[in-house]
Every structure is written in structure tokens, then in C-alpha cells.
Design goal:
Helix content is 26%, strand content 20%. It is an alpha+beta fold.
């Protein structure tokens, strides 16, 4: 997940986000390869949900590169649409560790 805050939205940007609100509510959110943007009517905080499959053949933890990729993708999505934002912060879980034997 990449969390952040909208900032400096002009009237057109805010109206566009509100128009698509139903598509971006948390109840409709999934983790997808392309990412899913989630926000509410306050247009304050948002979250992108990404499913990133990363492998590390050398045993290194791949989450650092995956986090950087997710932030870059979120940044590109927001910038391409002229949506002001700040404070992008990644977080996530390596689900492969769920299946490791103790």
C-alpha cells in the first residue's frame, strides 16, 4: 500500500474525484497488479493498493525494491492526472513468509 494526502486540488480535480467516488471507496478496493486507488468524500487521505510479486534469487529481501516501485507508480498516476499530493509512504507484507515453516 502507498498512503498519502491530497493537496492543492483545484475545483475541477476535486469534482472529478467526487464524480468517481463510488469506484474508489474502500468496500470496492482490491489489491491488483495495476493498483487500486482508494479515497473518501473528504478528499484528504488516499491509499493505493498494489499486488506486487517479487522474487529474490539471492535470498535478499525484495520489499525495498517493491516499495520503491509502488511509490513511483503512485507518483506517476497522481502526476499524470494533475492531482496534488504529499507524504507518500509505502507499507506492505511479504505474504510468502506466511507459508514458511517454523
Amino acid at each position: 500500500m502507498v498512503r498519502g494526502r491530497f493537496t492543492g486540488l483545484d475545483d475541477d480535480s476535486a469534482a472529478g474525484l467526487r464524480e468517481c467516488l463510488a469506484e474508489h471507496e474502500a468496500l470496492n478496493a482490491r489489491f491488483t497488479a495495476d493498483g487500486t486507488l482508494v479515497y473518501d468524500a473528504r478528499l484528504d487521505f488516499f491509499c493505493f493498493r498494489y499486488e506486487i510479486r517479487a522474487r529474490s534469487e539471492d535470498g535478499a529481501d525484495p520489499t525495498g525494491a517493491a516499495f520503491a516501485d509502488a511509490v513511483a507508480r503512485a507518483e506517476r498516476y497522481l502526476s499524470d492526472r494533475g492531482l496534488g499530493h504529499r507524504g507518500l509512504k509505502p507499507s506492505g507484507s511479504d505474504l510468502t513468509r506466511v507459508w514458511e515453516d517454523d
